[in-house]
Write a structure and sequence with these properties.
Elements: H1 2-22, H2 30-33, E1 39-44, E2 51-56, E3 63-65, E4 73-92, E5 113-127, E6 130-144, E7 149-152, E8 159-162, E9 169-186, E10 196-216, E11 220-226, E12 233-243, E13 246-253, E14 267-276
Antiparallel strand pairs: 1-2, 2-3, 4-5, 4-14, 5-6, 6-9, 7-8, 9-10, 10-11, 10-12, 12-13, 13-14
Amino acid sequence: MKRLIFTTIIAIAFTSAFAQSSKPDSIKSKADSAKMHKGARIKLGYGDDATQININKDRKDDTTTHSSRIYPKFSLGITLSRLDLGLATLIDKGSFTLSPQNQFLRYRSWKTSNAGFDVLQMGVRFSDAFKIYLSGGFDWTNIRLRDNITILPNEPVLTYKQDNIDFSKNRFSSSYLRIPLSFDFRSKKDSKGNRFHFVIGPDGGFLLDGMVKQISTEFGKQKIDDTYHFATFRYGGFFRVGYGDFGIFAKYYVNDMFENSPEQDELKNFSFGFTLGF
């Protein structure tokens, strides 16, 4: 699955680069319609956020112009943004302490992580300060188990067995296709050309796979794929706050982390950390 995802990203990057280089300019600003000095023009960015830089050979100073905007403005394209990297936490019936029936899921807090990014995006910008967009990407939650147990595949409910093996790594993970709907509020550019962003919205996701990965002296590296009763569809909310390209995020999923496994009712997933790219 990881090889497929990274191959897809590389293909998308090449396709995007080709599309950008071959795309004709359909909209010209008033500055473009005026007679330009001999020189080169470079466009930075994508869609409604693109900036045009005119580099004139007969002038000492370079000039920067922006395309005139008519709102609402629609956009659709390939992206590589909102790269999340943080910690994941299990919330059991509203508590950060696991209940007795879920003690087998005890985990190492600083090694239990969440990561994700978006690769597709479509949206509508209503003004320079506000935009709504729907995106699609991938999201992983990796639970680093403390106990020497094995979560068993193909069981009617979430089941484990105790092992007499000392695992150097015992990871229980899930991967999702994430589809967040974002309401993006941003400030005006400051003197450095950066903006403050506040983004909030609902987040849904479809399960791609679950996996147990173990490393031990006795058996080496082992990987077992299964759904492990992870929720087929999960839903919740998120927010992101940042400046420029960097910020923080938090995600909370309202429905249970596992399905068709009554002992894990009201066990939910909360993640927070750093994000790159708005």
